[in-house]
Amino acid sequence: MSAMSYKRNSKLNLPVLISIILHAILIFVLGYRALQDSDASYGDINGQSIDAIMVDPSVMTEQYQKQLQSQMSQQKAEQQKQQQLDKQAKELQEKQLAEQQRLKELEKEKLKAAEQQKQEQAAAEKAAAEKAAAEKAAAEKAAAEKAAAEKAAAEKAAAEKAAAEKAAAEKAAAEKAAAEKAAAEKAAAEKAAAEKAVAEKAAAEKAAAEKAAAEKAAAEKAAAEKAAKQKAAAAAAAKNDKAVNDLLGGITSSGSPTQGTTPSRKGVSNGELDKYKSLVQNAISNKFINPNKMYSGRNCVLRIQIAPDGLLLNVTAQGGDDALCREALAATKSAVIPKPSSTLYNDVKTMVIDFQPK
User: What is the CATH number of the domain that holds 229?
Assistant: First the structure.
């Protein structure tokens, strides 16, 4: 600050110095001119008056003082002006310093805001990175849990499948062993049954012969009893007439056949006979069990005796597959044989059926 003041004072002293030098030169010139004029006019031969110029020192001093005061006033004015300029320069400098300080503060604030923004951005980026890492970790955890669950489910399914396959294999082995055992037992049973069937067949034939003789005697006895039964049948209700007529071998409700007579076939055709036998075979088939069609292609000839109302009186095997015949005899005994018509009974009361399982 002192260097600037010294520089400003140097600028003010230079005009004052120049002014003083100029005034000195002016005074010297005026004095010199006055002396020259005085020497030139001294001893003029014409005796004319000479105009002399008197220089009053007081006037010169006054003029000098005035000039000096003017210079000093000017110098003072210049000093004041310079002071004003200095003041303005100082104020400007202060303003500049204040502006610079303001700019520095603004720059600081700007840098601080930038730093804060940078920190906030870094924090946001860090938070985003942490969030992304957390989401990634959560996704990886969920994927790992899902994979573990799928693996556990697959292992469980595989274990269940292996257990099921093992159980199925054990069951199949047990069923196979049971089937083999059953087949062996069945073969043994069939063999025993075949042997028994041979014995039974002989016994059945003997019994059939004895039964035929007994039936013949019973028929003769029945013919003798028909007359007595006719009176009782006539007194029965109308709804029982047909049943009584069928039981008596086709005796009509309005007539009384003589003892020893037999109903007439009234022209029974082979078609009606075959149709009835087909109905009987269907009735047996309904009770016959053919597992896995094991009896397909086999046959058994059955001799069947029935009552007028279709009641089974007797059934025997006349030939065919022994095992099939055993099953066919059992099925026939449990079958519901349809009741034949009165005109058809004499032709089917003892019939032969060639039974072939379906």
Answer: 3.30.1150.10
Helix (H, G, I), strand (E, B) or coil at 322: helix
Q: Would you call 135 exposed, middle or buried from its count of C-beta atoms within 10 A (0-12, 13-18, 19+)?
A: exposed
Query: Does 56 fall in a domain?
Result: no
Count of CB atoms situated within 10 Å of the CB of 94: 11
For residues 239 and 233, the answer to whether their CB atoms sit within 8 Å is no
Structure tokens at 342: 């009165």
Give a yes or no: residue 324 inside a domain.
yes
The DSSP 8-state label assigned to residue 339 in this structure reads: P
* pTM of the entire predicted model: 0.30
CB-count burial class (<10 Å; 0-12, 13-18, 19+) for 217: exposed
DSSP line for 59-128 = HHHHHHHHHHHHHHHHHHHHHHHHHHHHHHHHHHHHHHHHHHHHHHHHHHHHHHHHHHHHHHHHHHHHHH
Q: Structurally, how many domains does the chain consist of?
A: 2
User: Tokens for 218?
Assistant: 């019973």
In a domain, 322, yes or no: yes
Tell whether 204 is covered by a domain: yes
Rounded-to-integer distance, Cα 289 and Cα 35, Å: 183
pLDDT digits (tens, 9 = 90+) for 115-153: 888 899 888 899 888 998 899 989 899 888 998 889 988
322: containing domain: 188-260+268-355
| Residue 309 · residue 246 · CB < 8 Å | yes
